[in-house]
Design brief:
The structure is a homodimer. By secondary structure, chain A is of the alpha/beta class. Chain A is about 35% helix and about 15% strand. Chain A has two domains: about 5-180 and about 290-375, Rossmann fold (3-Layer(aba) Sandwich); about 185-280, Rna Polymerase Sigma Factor, Chain: A (Orthogonal Bundle). Chain A contains eleven helices and 14 strands.
């Protein structure tokens, strides 16, 4: 499947600009997006797929035959796959604040004609969803058959259900949470501190020749620990040593897990922007669905939703553990919403939403079949 | 209780030097230690208390009336306390590689008359225990009534039981593990990378005017996340904000958990040496009791031990989770050793060994009574 990225731009005028939750507005907002499959005449087969922290609009297929890797959820999206492109029209757009084509801190600030960097306004998950809603209007779709996503993508799905209830027939928040726990906020804090204290960071005004690579790599290595489960790490790496059989009695990488982290850190700095990383993790920290109710009750917020929910968690996910998905389920049951919940047994930790294709695929396929029937 | 730190130095000659597991030797080894209570004539009431990663020989009492805080385990050690100084003679020594009086990377290398810094040889938990054994000989004690410690202190207690079985009547490894899991190795790796990549680090040759504060602080903040439990963090901090009621939409500390980490990080850089932190965490990574058996079987290693064991874990400790203590218990049962095991219910996470005085105190008190009777 060869796909071409597309761009939609809006907000040239002040009245059309994107109003953000922090109080700022953004002009000239570009959205990078991709589509897979064909929109039917009734426009009833459109599904929005939302990506996670460092993902992109490139969810499936390849941009050219030579591409080494397909999109990030290619195992789930394509002809005959769970998100069957023979039946459905899929849309995936890069989130606001990211560095893969949609407006973010690397974009040019129309007021200064220079990159925003840290002058970019603070964004929220609700702002990301507003941006996607603009794209939806541009595509002339009035109701998504479903909005699906894992991790931060799942937060967007939840946000869609309560901000635009009439625009979503169903949602699939996967491996996600109604609000970040203090432990996750803490990990994000340490990660951002590592980036911001890198001597190359220069308050966000770093140059291409001297990126805050060390800090960003530390941040990414830390994040990767939270994406794997403790049991999964024991299974995959154990205490096995790299290259040699004995301790090297040095501070260089000696255990295989150290080499793994080192590799992940070094790869990341080549593909992601440090400022974008700061903004998106902060948006995640700030995500708290229950805050939309003056009393802070999640059920009062979810009461606005009309969609059917498929909520999926993974047993060994300790970043967004099953109990957090259960909180959504309980709140939905209090407001008598249609909700299907599944905790999938997996050792993959948080990463499971990208790896457990078989189980996840079956759940998604069946849920979509039901949703299609009652759209 | 006013106590005075003491020092014992050995290894002036090559023959008396400390032979390390990495192959190097250390000359002029100083051990800083403190004692509490009185050694009885039979020398049958001596207990060694082993401290954790950033602890010191100052386990109890104060150095002067003006001291703001007592020693790190003062809630457990003193007249009438669990480690009752009216009955027992307690010894606590600063570990090899530390920066609180015992020889470590900040010490003067007798070969160069300069601080070792990164020329300090790599040390292991077994080397720490060998150093304590030298102190034991100096104190003319032949058998500890017990060796007790939490976390890294518990590793030392385990090591004592297998390296010097005749010198320990009982051991109390608390909140510890027979070997570091890859997840803990991973956290240590990220922490050390933060220290070593600080521009002030200068390959360990930093000066007092420009310490690698940022890196060390990041490392410490990360460690603190692993010392608390997720549930404990929710209880203690939740998503509460600092100072104001609303999001500040900035990258500065906004959540209380962020202020807490920031404070812990900033306090630590004033009290601990970065190189010492590297060496001790690496010694923890390398700790793997089962490696002392060619087949890697923990029960074969513990079969060397003759001591009675009191093993204690804490339900919410995810750094050294209960299952790791259970592995020790199972191995001890296989070799038919006397072992008492207790998993204490607590929300304090790994920190519980410093906080659960009541429950822990009762366990220790009763265990010591039994051990005393059959010494």
């Amino acid at each position: 499947m060869i796909v071409k990225p597309q761009t939609y731009t809006f907000g040239e005028s002040e009245s059309d600009a994107l109003k953000l939750r922090c109080g700022s507005t953004l002009r000239n907002v570009s959205i990078e997006f991709e589509t897979y499959g064909t929109l039917n005449e009734a426009k009833s087969n459109a599904i929005l797929v939302c990506h996670a922290l460092t993902g992109s609009a490139h969810a499936a297929g390849k941009h050219s035959e030579d591409d080494r890797k397909p999109g990030w959820w290619d195992s789930m999206i394509g002809p005959g796959k769970a998100f069957d492109t023979d039946k459905y029209f899929l849309v995936c757009s890069n989130i606001l604040g990211s560095c893969y084509g949609t407006t973010g801190p690397t974009s040019i600030n129309p007021d200064t004609n220079k990159p925003y960097n840290l002058d970019f306004p603070m964004i929220t998950v609700a702002d990301m969803v507003d941006t996607q809603h603009r794209l939806m209007q541009h595509l002339e779709i009035t109701k998504w058959l479903s909005v699906a996503g894992g991790s931060l993508g799942g937060m967007q799905a939840l946000q869609w259900a309560v901000t635009y209830p009439d625009a979503v027939h169903s949602v699939m928040p996967i491996a996600t949470t109604p609000m970040l726990s203090p432990q996750s906020i803490a990990f994000d804090w340490v990660g951002r501190e590592a980036v911001m204290s890198d001597s190359n960071f220069k308050n966000g005004e770093y140059t291409k020749d001297a990126l805050p690579e060390t800090g960003l790599s530390i941040s990414r290595m830390l994040a990767h620990i939270t994406y794997l489960s403790e049991a999964g790490m024991r299974e995959k790496f154990g205490r096995r040593l790299q290259e040699m059989d004995e301790y090297n009695f040095e501070f260089t990488h000696n255990f295989q897990i150290e080499s793994y982290l080192r590799y992940q850190g070094s790869q990341f700095v080549n593909r992601f922007d440090a400022n974008a990383y700061l903004y998106i993790t902060r948006a995640m920290d700030y995500f708290n669905l229950s805050m939309e109710d003056p009393e802070g009750k999640l059920e009062n917020v979810l009461d606005k939703a009309t969609a059917s929910f498929l909520i999926i968690s993974f047993s060994s996910d300790w970043l967004f553990p099953p109990y957090q998905s259960m909180e959504i389920v309980k709140a939905l049951m209090k407001c008598r919403r249609e909700v299907t919940y599944c905790e999938i047994e997996s050792d993959y930790g948080h990463d499971a939403f990208l790896l457990e294709d078989d189980t996840l695929g079956d759940m998604v396929r069946n849920f979509l079949k039901t949703q299609e029937a009652c759209y």
